[in-house]
Structures are given as C-alpha cells and as structure tokens.
Design a protein that fits this description.
Helix content is 0%, strand content 64%. The strands form 3 sheets. Strands 1-2-3-9 form a 4-stranded antiparallel sheet, with no helix packed on it. The protein has a 3-stranded antiparallel sheet with strand order 4-8-7, with no helix packed on it. It has a single domain (2-83), classed as Maltose phosphorylase, domain 3, CATH 2.60.420.10. It has 84 residues and is mostly beta strands.
Length: 84
C-alpha cells in the first residue's frame, strides 16, 4: 500500500509492503515536521529502522507500546521500519 499527502510543509509519504514474514514500512516526513508512527510489534526493541534497533536510530524516539504496536516519534527524513 502506498499513500501520500501534500501538507502545508511538504509531501508526507507512507509505503507498507510484505516481504515473506516481514512487514516493511517506509515513511518520509518533510523538513521541520514531526510524526508519530505505529509499527506492529510485541516489543519495541525488536523493531529495526534502517538496519539497527529503532530505539537507537537517529531521529527516532520510542514513546510507548499501544494495542500491539510500538509507537515512535520521528523527525523529518526517510525511515525504513520492519516488523516480524
């Protein structure tokens, strides 16, 4: 699934895809903007972003677990999350 929205700050894009047993989420956030991202997971430590744990990734801050999802605050840029 792909979606985009042209906000007053620029284009916001989201792309979900399945690769085997992994769900991949690509998110692009425009400059000077923040977003909240929900990634399906049992444990935030098990969610990678850009090949390293999301809880240690630049521009990513873990907020909480909520209804089977790890919730992250992200800044502007492009992010690649994965969930198994």
């Amino acid at each position: 699934m792909k979606a985009s929205y042209d906000s007053i700050h620029g284009r916001i894009e989201s792309n979900w895809r399945r690769e085997g047993g992994t769900l991949r989420l690509s998110v692009t956030i425009p400059a000077n903007t923040t977003a909240t991202v929900y990634v399906p997971a049992k444990d935030a430590a098990a969610v990678p972003e850009g090949g390293k744990p999301a809880v240690k990734a630049d521009g990513v801050r873990f907020l909480r677990m909520e209804d089977g999802a790890a919730v992250f605050a992200i800044g502007s840029g492009t992010y690649e999350f994965a969930a198994r």
